[in-house]
Specification:
Length: 111
């Protein structure tokens, strides 16, 4: 089922695999690579829009009365979000970038 994405190394321009992206290193030229944080916006925004639509269409007051039914509904929504994000990432592969020193920084340390 594997789709053939065109993810290329920013240095050597060779095709790289998902395993190379997970390892954060190009197998050919040994360059450190990463998926930019801005890529996840393109998978998150449509996924949460679909989540809102599915939640509005499928909500029932019975979910509030029966805890197990509400829990099942919640997990169904979580699966919908995961599937939408997976489908989007399958058809819109990320643009791989070289990893910079500040890519690891997730918050500011103002001390």
């Amino acid at each position: 089922m594997g789709l053939n994405f065109c993810m290329t190394c920013p240095e050597c321009r060779r095709n790289i695999t998902g395993a190379d992206v997970r390892a954060e290193r190009c197998d050919y030229c040994n360059t450190e690579i990463c998926v930019p944080n801005s890529y996840h916006r393109w998978t998150d925004i449509p996924a949460y829009l679909v989540l809102a639509l599915v939640a509005i269409k499928t909500f029932s007051p019975q979910f509030l009365e029966h805890t197990w039914l509400g829990t099942l509904w919640f997990w169904m929504l979580a699966v919908v979000v995961a599937l939408v994000k997976l489908l989007i990432s399958m058809f819109i592969p990320p643009k791989i970038q070289p990893k910079y020193v500040n890519e690891d920084i997730t918050r500011l340390h103002l001390e």
